Amino acid sequence: MTDYAIEARDVAVTYADGTEAVRGIDLLVERGEFVGFLGPNGAGKTTTIKTLVTLLRPTDGSIVVNGFDAIEEPRQVRSTVGYMAQETSIDPELTARENLRFACDAYGVPRAQRDDRIDELLELVELTDVANKVADDFSGGMKKRLDAATALVHRPPLVFLDEPTTGLDPAARNRLWEYFRRINDEGTTVFLTTQYLEEADQLCERLSVIQDGSVVAEGTPGELKRRVGGEILSVELADPDESERAVAVARDESLFADGATIETTESGLAVTARDARTRGTELLVALRDAGIDVIGFDVRAPTLDDVFLAVTGEGNEDGPSTERESDTTDVARSGTIGNGGRDSREPTVSDESEKGNDTDRDEVNG
Ligand SMILES: Nc1ncnc2c1ncn2[C@@H]1O[C@H](COP(=O)(O)OP(=O)(O)OP(=O)(O)O)[C@@H](O)[C@H]1O
């Protein structure tokens, strides 16, 4: 048996309108790994996931998931993956238990195993106490936990989580993290996309960053941070209008090692350099000598936000600023996890269609 949960090579997906959403990416995910797939809006994350779970047919390339060919054996792929889509798949009019029963039907879980499986999952996502309440009364976090549980009724060895915590407050997000860690500890391979870089940092062993349909960086969170090239010294000036002059001072004095990046910021300047910490005081002295007042400074290790900015050239404004929804609110009927007007039951990976029957795949070229 192959050691890989996902072996995707040179995968390209072009939509019918000509949009090249994915342009020749390779992804190798070992069984049991927890990997993250990051990228700005529209980078191609969801398209990639939909292709891996066989909802979309690649225009080019090869995909093997859990040892099954995604084009030749989509039914087998679907029976061995769980997919928690960005759009919720739960029916608000059904109870938590009924939603899970529906998912068991859809995934063909043998009748004799259903009750035990449902009890087990309700316990895992801590919804046993509200098992018989309708999902419409659940908070955003509870709905997401139920959503995650429905993706696991058939005990898939590989689960895809597409921005699973978007819109949740930190407490609700933490609770879901715990749950994702637990399923991974139990051996499930997890493929996560997120716009919260802290989430990727906390959970993922390995990350791929995608931009404009191509993978632009790969590595462990630590490797990616080291690639930023040192630490970051931020200097706050009394008069931010002096930023340009402060940058010129920092550059003129050649204070920092080759490869340093010295840029203006809203409040002053920032230096990314291997020796940012050790040469920082010299910069402060040089600024004082130039008559530039400094009111604060800070040296820190790079975060994934810095990595994201360095490799994609884009800030991650969508992440932390996303509308939030409290896990503790009793009724938080969500507008943040919309299904885009589509029937939330369709398409799902539980569809039993075989190769050649593409009615459940989104429209793509090729
Ligand atoms: N059905 C479709 N037809 C045509 N183009 C599409 C379709 N779905 C997505 N796209 C385009 O493909 C590109 C990749 O979209 P995709 O949804 O995969 O990105 P993403 O990284 O998941 O973004 P987000 O974080 O916003 O969900 C975008 O340019 C998007 O507009």
TrEMBL record:
Matching InterPro entries: AAA+_ATPase (IPR003593), ABC_transporter-like_ATP-bd (IPR003439), DrrA (IPR005894), DrrA1/2-like_C (IPR025302), P-loop_NTPase (IPR027417)
Database matches in SMART domains: AAA
Residue ranges constituting the ABC transporter domain according to the UniProt record: 6-237
Gene3D superfamilies reported in the protein's UniProt record: P-loop containing nucleotide triphosphate hydrolases
Pfam family, one: ABC_tran
Keywords: ATP-binding, Nucleotide-binding, Transport
GO molecular function: ATP binding; ATP hydrolysis activity
Disordered as annotated region, ranges: 311-366
Ranges of Basic and acidic residues composition bias in the record: 342-366
GO biological process: daunorubicin transport; doxorubicin transport
Segments crossing the lipid bilayer: none
Family stated for the protein in its record: Belongs to the ABC transporter superfamily. Drug exporter-1 (DrugE1) (TC 3.A.1.105) family.
Protein name in the entry: ABC transporter ATP-binding protein
